[in-house]
């Protein structure tokens, strides 16, 4: 997974406005993760994957998805107005929904690896967050998805 992740990041960075795309993806994954945590804590009752990650809830996952789609659409709109960049909002919103789901799969994939090898957290720098590397688990699948998705969309 890691070589594909790094390859995708390097390729995206080389696109026109590639740095903006990378920042957009990182911000979207972060918003999704933070919103899922808070919505899950406030309203979560149905466990998403209890054996892999007991704290994650369906409500948190949906809350993260909805929050990231709304906030990232707003950020894209503001970015578009500021830079004059044309954005195809239909493709963007489809991407945001799909990236949210794929990012959550990345999070669960890394949780599976941690559970398999008996590691609770990847570090202690950010207590309660699974460590510093936990900030990147959604990106491990999200960046290759972004690279593939937009490579296909821009060739249509």
Written description of the protein model:
This protein has five helices and two strands. It has helices at residues 2-13, 18-43, 58-83, 89-117, 137-153, and strands at residues 47-49, 53-57. Strands 1-2 form a two-stranded antiparallel sheet. α1 packs across α5 and α4 (89-117) packs antiparallel against α5 (137-153).
The overall strand count is 2
Spatial order of the strands in the main sheet?
A: 1-2
Structural class: mainly alpha
Sheet of most strands: 2 strands, antiparallel
Strand content: 5-15%
Report the average pLDDT across residues: 89
Span between N and C termini? 27 Å
Rg, Å, rounded? 16 Å
Short account of what is shown:
The protein contains 5 helices and 2 strands, in the order H-H-E-E-H-H-H. With 156 residues, it is mostly helical.
Features:
156 residues, mainly alpha, single chain, 5 helices, 71% helix
Write the layout of secondary structure elements.
Blueprint: H1 2-13, H2 18-43, E1 47-49, E2 53-57, H3 58-83, H4 89-117, H5 137-153
Antiparallel strand pairs: 1-2
